Prior knowledge:
mainly alpha, rod-shaped
Amino acid sequence: MEQKENIKKLFARQNEYFQYIFEQEQNRAASIVAGAKVYIAFLVFILGSIFLKVITADKIIILFNSSSVPLWEKIIGISLVLLSAIALLIALTFSILVLKVWSYDRLCNPANRLKETLHMTHEIEVLSKCISDFAVAANRNNEINNRRAQCLSYALSSLLIGTILALITATTLNFIDLGGK
């Protein structure tokens, strides 16, 4: 009888452990989403402040149409604008992918679980089913969180590259003589 009690305690501890792992993955998902929201806010700020205030469409049109600007300066200016815009759009895309609704595994269908457990005769069977549910759901959610974290990593890299290129673009356009504009 004592061995049966020890097994019950072991299963109860395992159940608590896998429940803890499942909850940690839920917390990890929340922190990844929070990071993506910060990136998107920063992207909106960068896009708004640099591309609407510093690198205006007027400057780009004047740069493109100006006869006083050498061709190589036009190519550099337009290339920098395009590269920085593309990098920032890539960052925005990856940030939005992180916010996409992913199909997380829930622990179980409560109605089905109730039907299953009514036919189980031992508490150990019920605990082992719970442990299995926690383990499977936590593993699936871990895989999803790893993909989301990878997207967030790509977003950060693109964000840094795009921001640096946008700053270089803004500086370059200020040095190019656009005919007094």
